[in-house]
Amino acid sequence: MNGIPMKKPKGELHTLKTKFDAGLIESLWSENGELMYIIKDGLDLNEYALLAKQILESEGDIAHDFTGKVTNESKNEFARFEYRSGWFLDGLAEGEIE
Q1: Which of 44, 55, 68, 69 is in the most buried spot, having the most CB atoms within 10 Å?
Q2: In a domain, 5, yes or no
Q3: Domain coverage including residue 32
């Protein structure tokens, strides 16, 4: 996946959120600021990581880029996703924009 945020139309976003919420047990932020979603055992972690990325990037509520994690209820497997906010000031901190 490239660095361009994955924006979805409202109708499609609602469908994605409904599916994601059906498998979601809990969402939490770790002490070091990592967003983690815990989903029901037996669900595809990579699919839910992609769903999380698409939903978050479509909503655009978080202004900074970060790596998130989706884990199963047993917490013995996980998948990561790269959230890209798409906010125009992001490049300033990394020296990409002068």
Answers
A1: 68
A2: no
A3: 10-93
In a domain, 33, yes or no: yes
Please give the model's pTM, rounded to 2 decimal places.
0.79
3 belongs to a structural domain? no
- State the DSSP H helix or E strand holding residue 82, giving kind and residue range, or none if neither: strand 78-83
Contact status, residue 51 vs residue 16, Cβ threshold 8 Å: yes
Tell me, yes or no, whether 4 lies in a domain: no
Write the pLDDT tens digit of every residue in 54-83: 999 999 888 888 999 999 999 999 999 999
**Is 34 in contact with 68 (CB distance < 8 Å)?**
yes
| Cα atoms in the Cβ-side hemisphere of radius 13 Å centred on 95 | 0
Q: Which residues contact 43 (CB under 8 A, 6 or more apart)?
A: 23, 72
Q: What is the separation, in whole angstroms, between the first and last Cα of the chain?
A: 26
